[in-house]
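idk why but the lab printer keeps eating my pages so im just putting this in chat instead. protein + nickel (II) ion:
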Amino acid sequence: MAKILIKNCVIIPMEKELADPGERYFTGEIAVSGRRIVHVGPQGTVSSDFQAERVIDGTGKVALPGLINAHTHAAMTLLRSYADDLPLMQWLEQRIWPLEANLTPEDVYWGTKLSILEMLKAGITTFADMYLFMEQVAQAVQEGGMRASLARGIVGGERGLAALRETEELADKWHGFEEGRITVMFGPHAPYTCPPEFLKEVVKKAKQSGLGIHIHLAETLDEVQRIKNRYGKLPVELMEEVGLFEVPVTAAHCVHLEPHEINILRDYNVKVVHNPESNMKLASGIAPVPEMLEAGVTVALGTDGAASNNNLDLFGEMRAAALLHKVNKLDSTVISAYQALQMATRAGAKALGLEDLGVLKAGYKADLILVDLEKPHLYPRHDIVAHLVYAVQAADVDTVMVDGRILVEKGQVLSLDEEEIYRKVKEASDRLTGQH
Ligand code: NI
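predcted complex ->
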């Protein structure tokens, strides 16, 4: 059990849901033993019994909980910049799906490794993935050292039943790996690709296994129209009717909601993942995030896949969320910097059912990051929370710890071979697009 002490850093615990500016951070120290945080407090308060094997000087740095990317398709890094600035259905049907049909398990393994490299460097410690070849994704996560919640993407029909079995096999092997570093969810793709009868089967399996469900919900107007035409209901109404919300649900997007649908999400404690950059880039719309927060819905943040973002950077996503809702409401008080940071940390942990994560507090899992403040764009320091949302860049991340293990030091990823990943990804993308 490695014992690590981080001293002299600014600490943003994110423990309080509402915090006055003066209560949001302080200068102090964090002690980690094994996979857990054992102490967070002012300088010199750690117990004299704590014998650190390693002491990290946090001078000039800010410590915060590792960021949680609560909705992505990690291996879609392979498709980054392959198709942009196209109408959604043309983008999907003519560009993305044909290329995805040729993906091999090995492609997904290397695409996921690239995304892990990118996310770790950007201070992301956990991601929730929905894709295919999830065994290879799990291997990449195991080797890269990140925390992940994995869901095999499932569409209805014959292939759907096979994908349900794959999920069960994945869960048998990986759910709870290393005390929960890897967890598994069912991943029915969306209401318009999974018919109600099929979704009922997913719910039944989820109840039997105790796993949660990760789904895309109410992402576009086209989806709302299709569901209305087919079933005479709105997407959230239909999901309530099929019983989806009787198990823990992580719902990505929720862009197009009627006010009563927000209440349904709140009443069933459905966790929503907001993906502002993907919603903007695909012109899906603006999710009613201020309304959901006001109603008491947990709203986390995600990047979605790299083909519709195009990076996996939650600092950018926090900034986008804060700015998008301010301009949409013509109200600069909407989505404060602290709220945006909360969405990327403790709300993300809640969204994935990881209750002892996302806060710097004794007893919580030791997933944390140190951001280097010694940068021109981070002087002076009137408000460090505002800096993290409005001024920090992913490249300012200095140190990343997941499960008590240091994976990034001075911006360099220790757990992965960067050059090898670039080479393998180039080979895979050249083959997929027919270039040599
Ligand atoms: Ni998605």
